[in-house]
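Chain A, query sequence.
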Amino acid sequence: MAIDKVTSASITTDAVGPTQLNEASNYAFTGTVTGAGGTTAPYFEAYLSSNQGISSATLTKAQINTEIVDTANAYDNSTNYRFTPQTAGKYYVYGNLTMYSSNTSVNGAIIAIYKNGSNYKAQDVTTGSNESTRETLHAGAIIDFNGSSDYVELYAYLDVDAGNPYVQSGDKYCNFGAFKMTE
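Chain A, predicted structure.
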């Protein structure tokens, strides 16, 4: 006979198991359920609120300044533009950048995630001359943080022959985020 209600009597007699419970059913619990799932906090996501001019062929920190969410106040969106989680663990860190050249074609573009001031993960594209005036790149990595001083930043690079290269603003074109992975 299958159990349709989990009671303390059925638990204490070790009568609850996968053969007694219909695993496709929904069960309402009145107590506290522990040990199920995990937390992905802290996490953040931010975007660039206005176009950021960058020098051609120079890695430049993206000044991602508008937070969408920041559960632990771990993202500095006004001075260093960096994420410094105070909880140790593995995090998925990602960035998306759309970069433009106002007057000329793009020769190459790079997006880079820096950890503690050094290039950790990068994605690049070499377009050759007379290609598009816009490049959109994504980078992502699983990064281990010590929980006290490790930090990450996002960098942009656009190589143009002339013109005024910039990172395009808006949450659809330029964002940076991270979240703690559950184990």
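The longest strand covers residues 89-101. The helical segments are 8-12.
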